[in-house]
Design a protein that fits this description.
Distance between the termini: 50 Å
InterPro entries: KH_dom (IPR004087), KH_dom_type_1 (IPR004088), KH_dom_type_1_sf (IPR036612)
Organism: Geodia barretti (Barrett's horny sponge)
Strand order of the largest sheet: 1-3-2
Shape: globular
Number of strands: 3
Pfam families: KH_1
Order of helices and strands: EHHEEH
GO molecular function: RNA binding
Keywords: Repeat, RNA-binding
């Protein structure tokens, strides 16, 4: 237990939210993941900056989904930050008027 340090494996990161912070999980089409993350992660960093929330995309590549067309976006922060992040993500997903670029 006393090892600490960076990384620490893939488990448990979600339980390290600060006091007053909770997480919500948003299910999105896997085809939207790239639009949420952006080139080189730029858009997801902007979303985090604007909302004040921490955003992590879980691609359902391994485990349970077995070829699922959905990915999970976990948003961690206080209520206001989570709500803002969810609205920003919804805006990105719903602005799909220009499909064939």
């Amino acid at each position: 237990w006393g090892r600490g340090g960076e990384g620490g494996g893939g488990r448990g990161w979600g339980s390290q939210a600060d006091e007053g912070e909770d997480s919500i999980t948003i299910s999105v089409a896997r085809s939207e993941v790239g639009r949420i993350i952006g080139r080189g992660g730029q858009r997801i960093r902007e979303l985090e900056e604007k909302s004040g929330a921490r955003i992590k995309v879980h691609r359902d590549d391994e485990g349970g989904g077995g070829g699922s067309d959905e990915a999970l976006v976990e948003v961690t922060g206080d209520e206001s930050a989570r709500k803002t992040a969810q609205e920003l993500i919804d805006d990105i997903i719903s602005s799909q008027d220009f499909r064939g670029i």
